[in-house]
Each structure stands twice: as C-alpha cells, then as structure tokens.
Amino acid sequence: MSTATLDSDRITRTRAVERLVTGQATSDGAGVKLTRVLTQNLQRRLDPFLMLDAFGTDNPDDYIAGFPAHPHRGFETVTYMIAGRMRHKDSAGNEGLLTNGGVQWMTAGRGVIHSEIPEQEEGRMEGFQLWLNLPAKDKMIPAWYRDIPSSEIPEARFDGGTVRVIAGESRGVRGAMQRDGTQPVYLDIHLEPGARFEQSLPADHNAFVYVYRGGLSIGETVVPVQRMAILANTPTADGVVLEAGAEPTRALLIAGRPLGEPIAQHGPFVMNTQAELIQAVRDFQAGKLV
Ligand code: FE2
Fold it and tell me: Which CATH number does the domain 3-285 belong to among 2.60.120.10, 3.40.50.20, 3.40.630.30, 3.30.420.40?
C-alpha cells in the first residue's frame, strides 16, 4: 500500500465516476441465482479484477444447490458473506464454514477443486464473490486459503459511519489481507444518511464502488443501489469521496494495482495464454488439480 493512506485520508480532489454499470442476472454452479456485476468485458478496464458476483435472496430455491465440486487455476477468489452460512471443502482436505460478515480468501494458484454449499435451508443468503487475478509469476504457486471470521476483520469508525477493512488499508487501519502484487483494497463501508467517507487511492490503481443498500454520490454522480460505479483514473485525483443520500447506505469500495499482463480465461481457469489454458484443462482432466 501507498503510505498516503496512513494520514487521515483527507482527499483534496475526488475521482469522478467514469461509468455506471448494472449487473446481469445469471445463474452459476447448480442453479444459484446471482447478479454478475463485473463481467468479462470489463476485465481489462478493471485489471486486476476479473469478476464480481452479488447474490442476495430470501428464497432458498435460488441458492440451495450451491456450487458442487469445480476447479480453479490462476487467480484468487474472495467470498464475503453478508448473511447466511456456506460450507466449503477442497481437494487439499481443507474445510470451513463461512458465516455472517466473514470472508474466505482462496488462492487457487496452480489448482484446486472445491465446493461451496449452503448450510441453511431457509432464510436470507446474501454476499459477494470477487475474482482477483494473480501476477503471471504467481499463477502456478501452491493453492492456499484462509477463513477470516467477522470478528477478525478490522474496522475503523468515523463521523457517521464504519469501514470494515477486508484488504489494504483505510484510515490508518490495516486490513485482514495484504497482497504485494495487486495491492488490493477491499472495503465494506457503512454510512448513516448524509455521512461522508474519504479514501486515498493511487491514481493509476483501478477502482470501483458497488452500492448494496441505500444510495450515495461521488462528485456530481448519484450512484443508486445495485449499481457499480467505475471510478475514473483522473491523474490529479488523490482518492475518492463518497456521500450517502437520505437512507442508511452500504457499499463496497474495491481498488487494485493493474497487472498489465495478457488475460486468457476459459471458465474457471484464468491464465496469460491460450496454451496455458489448454494445459489447465488437460491437467484437470488428468486429475492433477488436486
Ligand atoms: Fe469456486
């Protein structure tokens, strides 16, 4: 992280909103209904981020079958559970339970096969899954994961709100996770009506905000609920200022250092070249992703 975030995050010039994006309704796994907010056509613009899915429903039919065993290679998945219980197991023998407010950070590296299955048959299931790319040099590192219960996610309070610091740093609080290559910032920001939040960001890091309760403004732009605001990389801006509207508001702010490397994706594999994708499929078929 830049040391600029160690001061009080006073922003002299905010980034503007370049574009508002409405997610696409889709389903994945064994029929889990979700909204794909960051889609494949935005991977270059939002490098190092590859995907953001939002799921939120009170209807068990929308989530009950979960995500049976499937492989990954070449990137990291960050699952943030707002409400619900999800059991995950992987081919390395790891197992964990993701519950309200907790995060699972998984580095697929050279390969893992895992399942993500709800452990509830009723009630609300809500959360997000972010895919974060790995630098080319790290795509074949051994798989790794960490369960971060809600109680281990650092929080900072400020006038009119709270920020949960999942990764990176905010208001002098170091987050639960740090990554050298992509330097991700992952914040869950809770604002009272009219409250203001400032976050310093290096101008060349790609960044976006996703509003999941209420609504907020960034500069001149109103960002309604269930919209992603892609933040412009304004060279003279030193960060971003969010101002909540008339309702209690919650939003994710996600930023990272772009890798600037080729992106080749085939489903759950994200590498740099087609040849590496073919190899990933062969290795999976040969049972080498365990
Ligand atoms: Fe997965």
Answer: 2.60.120.10
